[in-house]
Amino acid sequence: MEFTGLLGAYPKQHILTEQERQHQLKQGHRLNVEPHYQLSVIKMNSSFLETVDKWFAWKGVITGFAAFLICLFSYGVVVVGFCSNVTSWSQMDSTERLEQIMFSTFICAISLPFIVCGLWMLRKESFALTHYPIRFNCKTRIVHVFRTDGSVLSVPWSEIFFTLGHLPAWNEWEVRGYVLEKDGITVRETFALSYVGSIDSSDVTAEVGEISSSDFVRAHWEFVRRYMEEGPESVSSQVQFCMPIDERRENVGVSLERIFANIAGAPIFIYYLLAPICMGVFFFRVIAMRTSKVPVWPIDIDTSGRIEPGDPFAIKGNLRGDRVALFPDAALAAGVGFQKSADKGKNLSNV
Hints:
This protein has two domains: 220 residues, no CATH class; 63 residues. It is 39% helix and 17% strand.
């Protein structure tokens, strides 16, 4: 549940830090960890892999909090309005009227900034885009990223500086892609991969060959890296579900399942403690989805990612999100399918 880049922008024009250099993830270096897709895939084929943004898993949280702010402080303004109705105003002397004006002004002065803040937050998640997809094209070797303003960033895969980014507020980590200036040290633009999660302190400082299987942040990076470097055949068997949001909004059932997937691996007591919160987030997620537009890739990007007829690795999600082959006969002939991993439950619990 982390919204850096959506509510607050990543630092711009900053110099790479020593920590970022130390935790660099190189495109040509294979990590000794099983790749995990972490419910991020929208569709995949031999031309491109398309994933969701990092805010997608908890979409609805911002809308819910914004609605709370707007309703709470609007209530204060309304109450002040009722307290100063025409009848009571006519019965006041000049001193009482002045006091009423000062009180009303004070309440409005306190409330309005919070209402404006709530409206600003609401526009960041609702009345925006349903998601901000990232497309990794392994044919053209270009990464396309939907920015939050609706424009698209396109940058060569080999020119992106990938590193682990620390999120101190929740002590979580993410994989960040930095687009650097020509000097090679100044960050011009930042985007993040789909998954945000915790990393054990021992894994943070671990050497490349000593990363544990619980490091799902690097495991998600390895999923993307292997797709781009080794092709879809290297990761296709990992993908069980594809988010059913390709050129459409997710349906209500998928919204509910996606929110509760966030706590699927929690202890039973914690699960039932968080369930009412998740139900609230689900309600506002539906609102956010229904008021937002589905992103549409520019024609040139769509053309460059044309899917070849008979591609055995071409998959997307059905209305429930189960992966389906676009060319089932070709997939069957090639033996392409999902292989259930031994730690599937643990994987989903860390989505």
